[in-house]
Amino acid sequence: MRHKERQITDKQELWQMLQKASHLRLALCDQGKPYIVAMNYGLDQESDSLYLHCALKGRKMDILAQNNHVCFQVEEVAELIDGGKRACKWSMRYKSLVGFGLARVLTDPDEKQKGLSVIMAHYTEDSVEIDRKVVESTAVLKVQITEMTGKMSKQR
């Protein structure tokens, strides 16, 4: 990172960013070509992992069968800074996080149920019931986080 003073390395602050964000972007590598998609997710801080859900078949699943290395990104956009008539004076106050990990498609129904519950807990404090048929017809990915770093704009 070029501006080390803007780097966020505090793990708790990074987890807070993950807790606040509403979605993440998951990046995969499809035979040497990048592929990125926005996804809903849940986080399990105890195991340093994320849970994501998707269809049982499709491009993500095809890619993951060949290469389970993933990258993910979230951001907090706090404020656009108006620079007036000079373009180079415009800026954005922000915080962003980039992480890397290894994705695994869960096959055990109980693990899938847990993953879906973790995802739902990210979006609501209410207890929700997850139908077993939904568990069977949904793919659940568990991403074991291997690395995370953050960056924030300079404060003005």
From TrEMBL:
<dbReference type="InterPro" id="IPR012349">
    <property type="entry name" value="Split_barrel_FMN-bd"/>
</dbReference>
<dbReference type="InterPro" id="IPR024747">
    <property type="entry name" value="Pyridox_Oxase-rel"/>
</dbReference>
<protein>
    <submittedName>
        <fullName>Pyridoxamine 5'-phosphate oxidase</fullName>
    </submittedName>
</protein>
<dbReference type="Pfam" id="PF12900">
    <property type="entry name" value="Pyridox_ox_2"/>
</dbReference>
